[in-house]
Write a structure and sequence with these properties.
The chain has one domain. The longest helix is centred in the middle third of the chain and has 27 residues. With 97 residues, it is an all-alpha fold. The chain has 4 helices and no strands.
Length: 97
């Protein structure tokens, strides 16, 4: 019984610790998720007819775009290139400034 326990403890000690998640990988996932939310909000905006709901969708779209620009700026600061992301010309101009 002791031999089995000692072998188990040794195996646990030699196991590698779980790797920390790559912050750049998480940033890419966050950017892509936000891009999808922006696309969904655009779709909602094009289908909505109620004035109050249109206003809400517009404000939501503005907030999402601000978050998107922030994440893109973070990616730029760490020289991270994320390909195939939807970005408006307005956002591109703000990022260049």
């Amino acid at each position: 019984m002791e031999h089995w326990l000692a072998a188990r403890v040794a195996a646990i000690k030699t196991k590698r610790a779980p790797e920390e998640p790559n912050p750049n990988a998480q940033l890419v996932l966050d950017i892509r998720a936000l891009g999808k939310q922006i696309e969904q909000t655009h779709s909602l905006l094009s289908m909505e007819t109620d004035d109050d709901l249109l206003d809400a969708a517009i404000y939501q779209l503005k907030a999402l775009r601000a978050q998107y620009r922030y994440l893109l700026r973070l990616a730029h600061e760490v020289n991270l290139v994320v390909r195939d992301l939807p970005i408006t010309e307005e956002d591109r101009e703000r990022l260049v400034q």
